[in-house]
Amino acid sequence: MRDNKSRLSEGMNKKVLIFDCDPGIDDAIALAFFSGVIKQNKNNYDEYYIISTWGNVPLEKTLKNSIICKKIFDIPVQIVRGKDKSIRGDVIFAEKVHGKDGLGGYSEKYFEIAKEEKITDLKFFLDNLENQSSEIEIIATGPLSSTYDILSRKRLRERIQKVVWMGGAFFEDGNITPYAEFNSYCDPEGVEILIEFAKEKKCVYFVPLDSTKKTQIKRDDFLHILETVKNKKVREFISDITENAKVLILHDPLAVFAFFFPDLVKTFTSYAEVDKKAFRGRIYSIISPNQYLEVVYDFDRENFFRSLVSSLNSI
Ligand code: RIB
Ligand code: CA
User: Fold this and answer.
1) How far apart are CA 293 and CA 269, in angstroms?
2) What is the gyration radius of the CA atoms in the chain, in angstroms?
């Protein structure tokens, strides 16, 4: 891969990678994974952004948690304030899983380091992005309310090269209703526009509960795996924020793995529709070859944890 300077000096388009998330404990671990991988492959992109979106907890808390993760994991990103509710305006949070603060009650302990941070407003960020000719790639691990705004802008939509979203349940029960996964339930309009985009450009990957359930690991076993991580601050932070969980499901880290290591996940292609009414967030799909949506249904679990630890040792 060319380095940034040669790409830009040869007039090639800037490459921008956006991480749209709602931290959240598993989003935080995904951001650690993300930080390590982009440090291991530092020439692949020219600019990185985190868009904090509402979801596990209200926007102001996901924003604060994004800044904490940027500092703890030393992520070379700019922070963008995303949407604070769904396209239709309603919100539901997952405080039972992530704590009222979104980080298992540890947001206050770490906020001191995150006080001074320049935050860009979503509209300002997207207006600027529209005026460049960047190539855009997106990892999304929460409700798609902010990504909806990106996909709604024709000049941005045309420049998106790849989207990987943790969300949906295809042949698995939901985790917020019997039929719907949380991110999908939160903003079905966001899911709908992403599916429409997938029909235009075959570059969209869903990472649903069907695969993320296979990341399940006892917290003690996970912390044991992390013992080889040299960065004490990172180990301590992950131990803190997972303190109240006996078992972890690393939904969002799997989306990061699928984004950066596509050869280590298994996918099927499918047609898909999202229910916006009766069974809000439910995804109806049919597996079919040569369809427009790539769905991650399995992955190499050993490689997943090995890549995660390796990336944490690059922070
Ligand atoms: O259903 C799991 C998803 O919902 C994860 O992204 C988790 O962080 C929550 O947002
Ligand atoms: Ca999330």
Assistant:
1) 5
2) 18
Q: Does the beta carbon of 22 sit less than 6 angstroms from any atom of ligand 1?
A: yes
Query: Is the confidence at residue 6, as pLDDT, over 70?
Result: no
User: Helix, strand, coil proportions of the chain in percent (round to 5)?
Assistant: 45, 20, 35
Q: Which atom, in ligand 1's list, is nearest to the CA of 176?
A: 1
71-95 pLDDT, tens per residue?
Answer: 999 999 999 999 999 999 889 999 9
Q: Could you identify the residue written with the tokens 């999908």?
A: 184
If you measure from the C-alpha of residue 191 to the centroid of ligand 2, how many angstroms do you get, rounded to a whole number?
Answer: 14
DSSP track, 219-244: HHHHHHHGGG---HHHHHHHHHHTTT
- Residue 220, domain extent: 4-312
| CATH code of 25's domain | 3.90.245.10
Task: Tell me if 181 CB under 6 Å of ligand 1.
Answer: yes
Compute the mean pLDDT over every residue in the chain, rounded to the nearest whole number.
95
Sheet holding 283-287, edge to edge: 119-121, 78-81, 47-52, 15-21, 135-140, 160-166, 204-207, 293-299, 265-274, 283-287
Helical ranges in 2-83 per DSSP H? 4-9, 25-40, 59-72
DSSP 73: T
CA of 122 to the centre of ligand 2 (A): 19
Does ligand 1 come within 6 angstroms of the Cβ of 62?
no
Query: Looking at the 3D structure of the chain, how many domains does it have?
Result: 1
Alpha-carbon distance of 84 to 55, in angstroms, equals: 8
> What pLDDT shows up at residue 15?
96
